[in-house]
Design brief:
Layout: H1 6-9, E1 15-17, E2 21-27, E3 36-42, E4 47-51, E5 56-63, E6 66-70, E7 76-79, E8 84-87, E9 92-97, E10 101-108
Antiparallel strand pairs: 1-2, 2-3, 3-10, 4-9, 5-8, 5-10, 6-7, 6-9
């Protein structure tokens, strides 16, 4: 059994920051359970373009207001507490955070904790062996 608090993750290598977001990673590939679990905050007034070419991601919004844009279709979806989206088709997407937007994210295959978006918004497919 693994038990972790957000407080104990803060400031460790599981607390990953980028220009438009901060992701605290509760469960990573090294735990060996087949997925990773992240508590992510996208900062108010930012826009983040992403494309998970190597991962499937489910996102559940628990705080804040924003907009999800499917860059392939132009569809726009309001993002607010209680809304979930699943990127099951590796969609190019943009998240516009009107306020700080806090989400719980699940990735498959699991992230290692070292991933950051590249110039195309992609997380590389890393494994523990790549460390």
């Amino acid at each position: 059994m693994i038990v972790r608090s957000l407080e104990e993750i803060a400031g460790t290598d599981r607390d990953v920051r980028a220009e438009t977001w901060r992701s605290r990673r509760f469960v990573l590939a090294k735990e060996g359970v087949g997925f990773s679990l992240h508590d992510t905050v996208l900062y108010a007034g930012t826009e983040t373009r992403m494309w998970y070419a190597n991962h499937i991601e489910a996102v559940y919004c628990i705080e804040g207001q924003g907009e999800l844009v499917n860059e392939e279709t132009g569809e726009k979806h309001p993002l607010e507490p209680g809304v979930m989206y699943l990127l099951d088709g590796h969609e190019h997407h943009t998240l516009r955070a009107h306020t700080d937007v806090r989400t719980v994210c699940v990735f498959n295959p699991p992230c290692t904790g070292r991933e950051v978006h590249d110039e195309n918004g992609i997380y590389p497919l890393l494994t523990e062996e790549d460390a």
